[in-house]
Amino acid sequence: MLSDLGIDPKDLAKVTAPMRYAYPAELDPEPDGSAVNLWFPDVPGARTWGDDEAEALALAEDCLVTALYGCVRFGEPIPRPGPGRGRPMIPVPPLVAAKLALYAAMRARGMSGGKLARRLGVTQKVVQSMLHLKRRTHIGHLERALAQLGVQLEVTVKDAA
Known about the structure:
This protein has 161 residues and is α+β, with helices and mostly antiparallel strands. It has helices at residues 9-16, 53-73, 94-109, 113-120, 124-131, 139-148; strands spanning 22-24, 26-29, 36-39, 47-50, 89-91. It is 44% helix and 11% strand. The N and C termini lie far apart (40 Å).
């Protein structure tokens, strides 16, 4: 079946290795206590700050998603998150994780948005919308697109820390 999709099964391991889209954040209070800086060491340009640690952490998800969207927009690889090592781990929302998985699968296969659109029977604008991290997309559409690339979306639920 994978060969019917133009996918070499040997290349599948590169894409299907489980990816957890949760990134460690570094917190650094200003010496005078006026603010707390937050950044993601694995994601270039992902920086924000808050008046205190709680505010910085509240802003972290949007900062992370915005920086990862920059990777998508400019055709760069999605950085792999490093280990937590006691740092706060900031996950992206599940829909964003599915979109990032689609983008990564397309990159790994060298598939353009136009080619995926033709396979799905949709316009290229629909695929662009699927890849836009801040636009809503029906999860079923993302599952179908991932399936066209030989990738299965799996959701894991666990107790909150």
